[in-house]
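Q: May I have one protein plus its fold?
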Amino acid sequence: MRGAITIAFFAALAISVSVSADDEQSTYPYVSVALTGRYYFKMLPAEKGYYDHDAGTGIMCTLSRQGTEKELWRTGGWYAFRTYPSYDGECLVRIGNWPRGRRPAKDHLAVAFYKRGVLMKRYSTSDLIKENARVLPSVSHYEFLASVPGFSDFNYDFSLITVDRVHYRFNACTGEIIGWKRREHSGDTR
């Protein structure tokens, strides 16, 4: 009897840890900086609704020689935990937030591309994932990215790698895919 109680206790503990580890993060203001350091993107969440991932404002800025902030452009109607401004502040890449569900879907944003605040192109998780069996589900969400190398130089080439080891290269100002290849087995067990 004591063994059954111990097993039940640890099972309940494991379930509570995994469920709490699946909680969505509340939104917060932050800044992401371009490779040059001259431009930065301010992501501001909605004033009400700490968990509203569908509302927010983004502002691309630079500093004058005197140190005063100059707004270049803004966008809104969304919030993202990861944004990447281009080296010149013209373009922005937005990574989709942690999607709910267990597999890629057309309505789950993977990545979106903006030029001076205007949406140029977006891709869903089902657009990018080629091997659904490699998607990493949690209790109520799933991971679709392995890593985001981002911008590698002072140009508009932007890279990301999906969990099924597909390395995509995009033009960050148009959103067009300029190349993709499946990465060779890297020793992982996925």
